[in-house]
């Protein structure tokens, strides 16, 4: 039987933590559970005393999602585990969630990451059935907010897996590296999925593995957090991973999307958060170029394969960009007809 480690990053998640851990303790396939606490001050550590069988790694400060998962990944490597599963502290797993993911990876040796069917906390809508990356440089969760959850019941290869509840092959992590802690939170799961794809590992969607997630249960408490992380992380994701052949084809679209996003941030009162995110991204530019060189040098798949895995459209919720694109199409058609 494969050794499996489940990693729960936690920052002031006391209100969700018991339900999360209870669901993991009751798994049909028993894992070694690790909670990585990011300097919580809300009584989380006291609550964890109710779970003496769970290993706790304590941080003095908040190191974000990536910094909260990586010590667990490293511990899984040190323990000689076969698989490691990051799991959000505001998520709850069905009893056979982990067993279904492990069974799939054991049967498919070329798959490095398994994504589950992640529902909203009430189970009525989808949170994610895997992640997409688009030719606009914009990732998005497949099926987000859709009520027709049964429409996502087929196994399929997918571009990426949500870090909220997924399973990673430890051998893959040893090859491509752990989460990039410069992301802190948001898109670090897309980044590691992109690196896995470039290295020749598949990412698969396993619909019979089901968990439920309270979207934004942690990050939604911090004003401007999403804006800062989005402005900082989207360009890093692009710079590190997009093959040179597609830099321009994706880059000009991402630049347009970023411009609109920055304008909306200013109008919504998040302009300062956006500016800080952009400055941090520029500060990290040189480091990301170095990461890019290593990632692209180790690439084992063709550029055409990567292109085939991208979505050649905008994310469903990119309404402003869709309106702008439609206006451009109308203008060009009018010019062609005159």
Question: What is the compact description of this entry?
Answer:
The protein is α/β, with parallel strands linked by helices and 338 residues long. 45% of the residues lie in helices and 19% in strands. The termini are far apart.
Account of the 3D structure:
45% of the residues lie in helices and 19% in strands. The protein is built from 12 helices and 12 strands. The strands form 2 sheets. Strands 1, 2, 3, 4, 5, 6, 7, 10, 11 and 12 form a 10-stranded mixed β-sheet that branches. The protein is α/β, with parallel strands linked by helices and 338 residues long. The mean pLDDT is 95. The protein is globular and about 75 Å long. It has helices at 14-25, 44-48, 64-78, 97-107, 170-176, 188-198, 225-241, 247-267, 271-283, 285-297, 303-309, 319-337, and strands at residues 4-10, 32-38, 55-59, 83-86, 91-93, 111-120, 126-128, 131-133, 139-141, 156-157, 166-169, 202-213.
Give short descriptive properties of this protein.
single chain; 338 residues; alpha/beta; ten-stranded mixed sheet; two-stranded antiparallel sheet; 12 strands
User: In whole angstroms, how far apart are the ends?
Assistant: 70 Å
Strand content: 15-25%
Label the structural class. Answer: alpha/beta
Percent helix, as a range, is 40-55%
The number of distinct β-strands equals 12
- Please describe the biggest sheet, giving its number of strands, its sense, and whether it closes into a barrel: 10 strands, mixed
Shape: globular
Low-confidence stretches: none
**What's the overall average pLDDT, rounded?**
95
């Amino acid at each position: 039987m494969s050794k499996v480690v489940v990693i729960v990053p936690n920052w002031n998640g006391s209100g969700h933590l018991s339900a999360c851990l209870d669901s993991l303790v009751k798994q049909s396939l028993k894992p070694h559970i690790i909670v990585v606490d990011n300097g919580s001050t809300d009584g989380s550590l006291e609550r964890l005393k109710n779970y003496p069988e769970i290993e706790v790694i304590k941080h003095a400060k908040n190191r974000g999602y990536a910094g909260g998962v990586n010590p667990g990944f490293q511990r899984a490597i040190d323990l000689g585990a076969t698989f490691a599963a990051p799991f959000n502290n505001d998520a709850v797993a069905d009893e056979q969630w982990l067993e279904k993911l492990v069974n799939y990876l054991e049967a498919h040796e070329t798959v490095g990451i398994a994504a589950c069917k992640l529902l909203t906390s009430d189970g009525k809508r989808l949170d994610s059935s895997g992640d997409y990356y688009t030719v606009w440089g914009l990732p998005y969760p497949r099926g987000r907010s859709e009520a027709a959850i049964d429409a996502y019941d087929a196994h399929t290869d997918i571009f990426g897996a949500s870090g909220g509840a997924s399973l990673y092959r430890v051998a893959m992590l040893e090859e491509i590296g752990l989460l990039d802690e410069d992301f802190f939170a948001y898109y670090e799961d897309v980044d590691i999925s992109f690196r896995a794809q470039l290295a020749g590992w598949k990412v698969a969607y396993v619909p019979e593995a089901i968990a439920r997630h309270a979207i934004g249960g942690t990050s939604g408490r911090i004003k401007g957090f999403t804006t800062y992380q989005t402005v900082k992380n989207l360009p890093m994701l692009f710079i590190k991973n997009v093959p040179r052949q597609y830099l321009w084809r994706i880059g000009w679209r991402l630049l347009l999307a970023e411009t609109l996003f920055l304008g909306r941030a200013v109008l919504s009162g998040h302009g300062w958060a956006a500016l800080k995110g952009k400055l941090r991204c520029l500060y990290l530019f040189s480091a990301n170029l170095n990461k890019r060189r290593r990632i692209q040098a180790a690439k084992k798949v063709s550029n055409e394969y990567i292109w085939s895995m991208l979505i050649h459209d905008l994310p469903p919720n990119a309404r402003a960009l869709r309106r702008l694109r439609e206006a451009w199409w109308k203008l060009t058609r009018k010019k062609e007809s005159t």
